[in-house]
Predict the 3D structure of the following.
Amino acid sequence: MVTEQAVLDALRAVSDPEQKRDIVSLGLIRDLTIADSQVTFTLAFTTQSPSSKATMHSMASRVVGKIPGVSKVQVKMGGAPTARSAPQQAQAHGHGHAHGPGPEKSAEFIPEVKHTIAVSSGKGGVGKSTVSVNLAVALKQAGAAVGIIDSDVYGPDIPLMLGSRGRPGMFENRIIPVEVHGLKMMSIGLLVNDREPLVWRGPMIHSFIQQMLKDVMWGALDYLVFDMPPGTGDAQLSLSQVIPLSGVVMVTTPQEVALLDVRKAIGMFQRLNVPILGIVENMSYFVAPDTGARYAIFGEGGGKRLAEEYNVPLLAQVPLDPDTRLAGDEGTPITLRRSDSPQAKTFRELASAVRGRLDELAALRPLPKIG
Ligand SMILES: Nc1ncnc2c1ncn2[C@@H]1O[C@H](COP(=O)(O)OP(=O)(O)OP(=O)(O)O)[C@@H](O)[C@H]1O
Ligand SMILES: [Mg+2]
């Protein structure tokens, strides 16, 4: 029989790295319930940084999981009580309703979505959004039903890159995603004015991500791709808290400064138990159109080094290509605009590598315990 006291005693071993005190005496443990051998509680975070939250979350779940007799631990994340509102921008347009920040991590939000793939990087400007849209299109071209969520609340680029200005519709209080190039798409960029600066606090990002999953009618999808903002911030943390992500594709450019940031991001996803599907090295090389000579503009070998370091596949090496940039700016991804180009072929190979990797990981996943 697991007691509340035993759980709290175990949790005293976990400290807030910023405040240097244990999470029990800081009062972060809320709503502790023990049902048979299953322990559930909420970490009521206040102003901690996303990386501290991730550390505390994974430590808390580990120490409680080690208590004899505990079979399952569910650690939810909460915010300060003042955070109980959905993004105001979304509300102003009448889209959705406020959800408390207490996240339920649940595949039930999107029961008809088979795989959820985040495209992330520690670094800005490496091509996450470009990879997201082209991966989504390439998966679609292979016959899958695909959705894409622009989770970059700070710089929502997906509507521009897919050339969509449509506004999402509403049906019975739920949001109907925009359809573009055969993909279902949602972005905060569809709900707000281009020039409006958005100021987001962590709990608002959390509500936004929850809303994108709970309140949007995604329907049956084989893949839902999330374009993430740069960094290791609240969006990455929230997303991996709200749903069990199938995996994350890490985008990097070849040079060492990019790798540094990507390592941090990989570390964060590992702590959150999100499988790393592999590495995409973008802007890997440039082939001069006149001479055919190949130039390593940002250096060489970074993606391969990273893949070896973490023992994950190098999923693709995408060349630097002016048409890819143009295609993004004009709203028709290169995989559609020039579907016979080497660039499009690379993205199709990426899609096929991602599918293979998801199957491989599904085969490795332990079967659920019964009883
Ligand atoms: N392989 C490529 N060849 C040429 N241009 C590229 C390539 N990949 C991305 N770009 C261009 O580089 C710029 C940055 O790419 P993108 O917006 O996809 O990066 P990001 O990582 O999503 O950036 P942010 O961190 O700002 O969200 C864009 O103008 C895009 O068109
Ligand atoms: Mg982007």
User: Anything to note?
Assistant: The chain is about 35% helix and 20% strand. The two ends are 15 Å apart (CA to CA). The longest strand covers residues 113-120. The mean pLDDT is 86.
